[in-house]
Design a protein that fits this description.
Order of helices and strands: EHEHHEHEHEHEHHEHEH
CATH class: Alpha Beta
Helix content: 40-55%
Number of domains: 1
Mean pLDDT: 94
Number of strands: 8
Distance between the termini: 14 Å
Low-confidence stretches: none
Structural class: alpha/beta
CATH superfamily: Divalent-metal-dependent TIM barrel enzymes
Length: 268
Amino acid sequence: MNDLKQLGLAVTLPELERAAEWLRAGNRDVELQDICEPQVMDGDWREIARRSKELLYGHAGRIGVHAPFWNIAIAALDTQIRSVVQSRLHLGLDYAEAVGATHMVVHSPFYFFGHALVAHQDTLEAEISLTHLTLEPVVRRAADLGCTLVIENILDLNPMPLLALVDSFDSPHVRLSIDVGHAHIMGQRGAPPAAHWLAQGAPLLGHVHLQDNDGTNDAHLAPGGGTVHWESVLRELRASETDPRLIVEVVPGELGRAMAWVDGLEGR
């Protein structure tokens, strides 16, 4: 059973400056997301990493990062694009190494799943093979760093392709990430509810993004600000036996409400 005591936050440096003391006090999970942005990738990211480590001094919880994701296609067919994607993901691992991170989030390659023009079930094997071509050198380096790649649902309408992808690596350094808010949005389009994703993915689950919305857009509200059924989500998380990283991922204006929600879980 998971007591949720490590439930923490996804932050960039400005939010970390506001929340560092809270994260340190509870030794909570933290996910540093600065390296997602192209201007940071091509700028002085080492200084951001240095400052983040400074703010987290004394923090004994688990640290992770979110890999670059803008225009990043991990199942790229074009070899030139694959090379650029690998370069950006290796930069994400450079950042992970600099901050002492032990997980890195990458996005699902299944952007077209459920699209009326794509018979996805006929292409799954090929998409998994292409993803291996992209990720295998990244996974090897991540393993050397003691870092686990967690692959996050984005537009996925069904847990099974993503579970098949994660399982295909047969590695403790590749695990499933479930974004509760993404699952909730896709649930309005025929996907199962977020709690079902957590139950189905439980054996491979390594990471969870908790965020709320009204089912129409990826609002990243603090839990309770939208229509996610949090009672069922929390029930599945408490039943987890894989000790996933638990990260509340909200827009900056929701940070205070997110911390208050986490604090309010004690004793519930």
